[in-house]
Amino acid sequence: MIIKYPGQSLALIIMLAACNQPAKQKDHAVPPVVEQLNPMQLVPGGEFEMGADDDSGQPDEYPRHLVKIDSFWMDEHEVTNAEFAAFVKATGYITTAEKPISKEEIMASLPPGSPEPDSMDLLPGSLVFVPTQTAVDLNDVSQWWSFERGASWQHPEGPGSDLKGKEQHPVVHISWDDAQAYAKWARKRLPTEAEWEYAARGGLKGQPFPWGSETPQASPGKTNIWNGHFPYQNTQADGFYGTAPAKSFPANAYKLYDMAGNVWEWTADWYDNSYYSQVKPGTRNPEGSNTPNDPSDDPANVKRVIRGGSFMCSDEYCRGYRVSARMKTTPSSGLSNLGFRCVRGAR
Questions:
Q1: Which SS3 state, helix, strand or coil, does residue 53 take?
Q2: What global pTM score does this model have?
């Protein structure tokens, strides 16, 4: 399994654990605690211009195109540790980061003639953000990402950490397959990229953020991002260094929280850097590309779209908290700044 760091132009690939088949699901009722902890909000149908609203976007955010969306329900905030714990308790599910790596899977992903991995490299783990002491080359993501054996959703900073006091924080170290398994259990699904952006905009037109045009740096109470100089100085002007509990910041007009910052969120769509140029204007409920494509950044590995930015985003390094910002990573990726939320059709 290959992990792809979001937020960079030069891919750093790290082999991580996993078997991508989710645990067998049993037919059962969803525990009431899930709906209690994360009620869904109705996002009314309509149309919007999808893509960057000005010239500050990345190439894959153009061209803007008209999209029509049917009404749907969306989790009011990112899935929390408490919610995911209820899922694991009910199903016995084991996440990607908690599974050992297959040597055969690693060798199949490496160039011919590569040496076999050391047995220590086959142990379960995930990628954890570790701030640097000084300024570093922002093109070298290995400066602040560390593969920690034993890191998982239950141990977000590594084997010595736990979830005490973080029950309402977004669950992290979750692969796309893990998110899919949870959504199936909860009788929900992952949002399409179009649904996600439509919901994030909260009915506003031509605005770069869920709350309007004011930058989060100018108004730190808007969302959880990196304030200061990434990745070595965070002033915590917004009150948080890492993840923040759900609903720590104001909701947008659709009563949705954390549609910018905190943690990246999985969507259902494959990533195709030229997809926007292929969408027919006025398309209703687009479901993304059928041909994953990322020719400039690790083209050998297909990726899914992630949205919303995270607590690591800043105006110096990653401006993923813009509503039109697109990022991508391999489905097996699990990171300490990557989570998800779910949706359900209104019908």
A1: coil
A2: 0.89
